[in-house]
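Notes taken during the Thursday session

The instructor put the following on the board and asked us to keep it in front of us for the whole hour. The protein is HD-GYP domain-containing protein. We were told not to look anything up and to reason only from what is written here. First, the residues (439 in total):
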Amino acid sequence: MRLRPRGGRPERLGPAAVHGVAAVLLGLALLHAAAHGVREPRVALAFGAVVAAGEWARVTLPGDREHAPLGTAAALAYALLGPLHGLPTTHGVLQVAAVTGLGTLAGLLPLAVPAVRARLRPDAARADTASRRLLTVSFAALLFQPLYNSGALDRAPLTGPWYGVLLGGVGAVTALCDAVLAAVLHAARAGLRYAAALEDELRSLLGIGSAIAATGILVSLLAGEVGLWALPLFCTPLLLAQASFRRAAAIRATTGQTIETLARATEVAGYTPPGHARRVADTACALGRELGLGTRDLALLEYAALMHDIGQLSLVEPVPCGATAVLPAAEQQRIARLGSEVILRTGVPARVGRQVARLADPHRLPDGSVDRSLPLAARIIRVANAHDDLLSAGRGRGLSVAAARLEALERLRLARGTAYDPAVLDALARVGRRARVPG
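Then, after some discussion, the predicted structure tokens were revealed:
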């Protein structure tokens, strides 16, 4: 299931700037290689070939973000490569950039074949990850290669375990730099706030990011002893890990299809209007982005919003137009609880069921205090659902889209702070002003 980026808003300049800097760096690196030649061409060719193979063997992570773990690990290993089979290497920062860039471009060449291009659907994600890899690997080379080539590491002296500590430190700083850069691109592409995008990237760093960095450092260390054989020997585990990631992606896709099917059950049975679940989900995700949710939270919010009306299947008679917002509070809560019980038996994350169970609970308790235990997702879906019900009712009376939206927002404001969270209503007003709420 693909989260939809914000509509109606031009993409930020972040991706264009990142691509521009990467293109300039690659151009300088290629000019330097043409003018001064390539040091240790056999070594450069071996690492470039693995980068190209890794670019071809990509993996899709949560949030529809693509990674090329093998290619990135090989490029990082080349950036941190000191001795090779006991002999010193002499390549520098610009050659690292040239090998990484050319290897990446070689991995993208199969996309020139129409059949391959149709199957892989090349998009901005590939350009983003390619530019990121070039910049972050060059940054790692900038931290390490001048120290190594100048002999400063020998004078320190940094030998034995301390050499490994140095590489680990460079790898850690590089991984953080990559997370910051990835957050810039992710925030622009997915329409997230930067803080939420950075949180997503740091969480990803603890998973596949740490595996990539560790593999790159390990290859660069062991290449000093076994030479280029370190590349196939120690990149294989990462290749096997990619198979596991693909399996997990297939499971996520199956989960998404199950949720879409369940969401349509109420429409097919005549309990809700066609497209209601999808509109509520789109509105909820727009509100979630406005309120700073990250990719993982947005995915769970979308799941819950799609299935928020499953409990209506327990009704003997459908609610007119499926508008549960007009039902008594107790009936709304009963439908939500029944829907939650169904969801908890589908294999969907339990958090989704808990969110649906609470979506009909009011923002303020009978004693006047705010219900702090109410999940943000439940508060968002409650507003999104009521908004779509009221908007559909207004359109049914012949109002224009703008007039129906204005009327729906005004009616929701009558219950501001009691049934509905004021922060969510304010977010709805902001999103509505930018014409992002699906109608």
